[in-house]
Structure formats: C-alpha cells, structure tokens
Amino acid sequence: MDDESPATNTAQELHEFKVSRDPARYGPTRIISLDVLRGVGVLGMLAVHIQLFAFPSLARWNPSAYGDLRGLNWWVWLATFVLADGKFIAIFAMLLGASIVMQSADRAAPAWRAHERRMAALLVLGFAHAYLLWYGDMLVSLALSGAVVFVGRRLSPGWLFVLGSVALATASLLSFALTWSALQSHPAALAAWRAQWTPSPANIGLEIIQYRGGWTEQMGHRVPAAWEMQTWSFYTHFLWQMMGLMLIGMALFKLGVLSAARSRTFYRVLASVGFGTGMLLNALGLWRSVATKWDLLDFALVSQQLHYWGNLLVALGWVGLVMLLCQHGWQLGFVAAVGRMALTNYLLQTLICTTIFYGHGLGLFGSVDRAGQFAIVRSLGVRVAGVLGLAPLLCGGAGGMAVALGRARTSAELPALVARARPGVTAFGGRPRARLTRRRLRANELDITSAAGHDPRRASPLAATRKQHAQSSGARFDDLRLPFLAVIGDGGCAGRP
User: Which of 2, 101, 339, 454 could join 35 via S-S bond, C-beta 3.0 to 4.6 A?
Assistant: First the structure.
C-alpha cells in the first residue's frame, strides 16, 4: 500500500467494511480498529481509576493531598497524568458516538426506539454501579448524553465537528464562569467552598475510615459523591463534554479516521500534533499548579482549562497511534478482544478493585502507594477475562458477559446462550464434549495483519478460515437479538438491533 494514499484496501479487508460518508453503506460486521481502540481505552481507564479506588478522592486533582510523591511514585503519577488521566474516557465517548452511527445505519424509522432502550438500560446499570459499588461511574453520563446526540447521527462531518466543538467549549466556559462567580460571592460562602475541596486531615481521615469499613459505612461517602456527579457536575460539565466528544466521534467515524482508512501520513500527523500539543498544555497546567501550591481557585481558572483541552488532544494522539499500529499489522488481537467486551471489563474493574481496597474485601484503601497501584494494574491487565471464564462467551462472538446477558431476555434463554457461546460444552456445568484448542480460539480473532495493507490474495488459508469462522460465529450469536448494552461494546456485531 502506498504510504501516502488512503488505505481503502485496508478498510475493505477489515471484514469488507467500506468507509463511506453514506451511513447506508455501513456493513453489519466488526471493524478491528474500533475494537483495538476500545480495548486500549478500557485498559487505560484502569490505570486512571485505580487512584480513586485506592486513595481519597481529593488526591485525584491534588496529588500532594495524600500519598508519597517521591521516586517511583512521582513518575507513576506523572505518566498517568500526562498520558492517561482524562484521555481514555474521551476515547470511550468518541467511540460511543461512532457506535451510534453504526447501530442505526441499517435501521429504518424506528431506529431511535432501539437506541433509547439501550440508553435507558445503560442508565439503570449506571445508577446501580454508582450507588452500590463506586461513585466514579461514567455510564450514567454516557447514557444520558448518548440519548441526546442521537438526533445528530445523520449530519455531515463538518456540522458534527462544529456542534461538537461548541459543546466542548460550553463545558469549558461554564466551568470558568461558575468559578469566577464564586470569587464574587460572599466571603463565608467562598470559604465554605474552599473548605470542601481543600485537603484536610479530618476529611481525608473520615473517607479512609468509611471505605475501610463495611458496605453500609461506605455509603456515607459513596451516595453524596455519586449524587453530586450526576446532578451538578453532570449539568455543568459532563453533559456538554460527553456530547461534544460523541459528536466528534461520529464525524471521525464518517471520515474513516477510526477505521484505519486514512493514509499513514495522516495518522502520523494526528499522533504527533495530538501528543505534542496536548502534553505541552498538560505540562503548563501542571507547572502552574505546582507554582501556586495547588491553589483551588487558580487550579479551576487556569490549570483545569489547560488540562481539559490538553486531554482532548492527547486522546486524538492515541487515536492516531493505535490506527498506525493497526495499519502496520501489529498483533493486537488480545487488545481487540478486550474492546469487544469493554462493558464487561469496565464493570469487572470495579468489582475487583473494590474487593481489593474496600472494607468488605481486603480493606487496603489508603495503604497502597502509587507504585503499588501500578503493579496491581499490571497484574490484573486483561488476564482477568480468562480467569473469570469470559473467554468462552467471547469465542462465540459475544461482546462480553454483560452484553451477552443483556441479550438473554429470560432465564430460560441462558442455557442456550452459553451453549451457543461455547460449542461442544453443555450449558451450566455439563462436562465438556470438546476442548477449545488454541487454534480454535485464535480462529475467532480477526486477522489483524489484513490491517497492514497486505494483498488479500496472498493471505494464508488459515487466515481466511479465521475470518469466515469469526463471521459465522457472530451471525450465529446475533439471532438472540440484544435489547440493550450493545452500544459500548459495539454489540457483538455492529449494526445489529
């Protein structure tokens, strides 16, 4: 493939998916680059969210509030801040926008009904996740924002970029205006606001006691924190930010950017400009925070604004880098597998991390430094999917445990679901009639080398067999018709109801 030309052959080889501005041409099969990018996003979010699982919440924006920041701990925090914090949730939101276009492409007028059902189910799951397990949930914000941006799915990429930029700017302006108005408020009210967000031994000690306690004791912090995120923070920030990112994701998908269908030069420029400019803005914001000793008002007016726009640019840099890796033929099948079960992995991260750090489990909240948290992230990684037995569902073409269970509308369908997901194994405890060999497992992965622009006529027979098997297994699974939860994990097969 010519290094300077659009990778149209690449897009065709990715399950014959032809990139087009006309959504009617979007096929019903998966796009490997979207799965890989989604997998990178899910794994990256674990590196960010583990700080909230393990440390008091104020340490998220002010690392000097709690924990050692010397030596390796400093470098772990710095790398997470510059490369991950706020970047992968942006990728996740953009991919949700792309999925909205894909899911509605093959539908007629009632497309909005299926979409709203998915968003409603995702909203219910998000509420349960936030109030029962972890206050940092983002599913609620994604569901509510996704319900709104659906109306823009048929707009041209140019209009989507304009509206997305306006929405992102609205979040930034609202944050600045509200902080500026706080400066003009009564001194007592300003002092109370500062006290709420300024680290103090009493506040931090109380949060540690709550999360080292039992599940009911944790609710004293979890419920107010989740409520604030889903009310005030949502209407003044997250709604506008998520809508903007989703609209931009729609535009990028329609232009073929997320399908690894642009030239390598395009992705090199995107990665270079995104990482270079974004990291510079983040570095300036960090310098400002350190110089002002993490002053709350200065952080909200200056540093937070620099981080906000820097995070978006670094997220685009990640998009460019991942698309380049797909085009160069890197073996990223396992990362793609994580992306296909993104929702399941997101929920598993919460279950595992709360068990490790909260009092109903090991009770290590506030005890593991940042270097130790990074070691836990490395230990968990994507191996948790295999440990918990999710690989059999994935091999059947599902989008993960959560998506697959969403497809089974009644308990009577679950045995058939498992049987379809893992051929040769009886549902619910029956003795396996045949083991899944390594070749059969690999046969379900898309042949990523096709993304490098290789001539499909020179592809090996085994690669063709893998491709056919993946297509047939996906079609076999789709006759259960998922009612919800498909949109984040791309629903087993894009474009399916």
Answer: 339
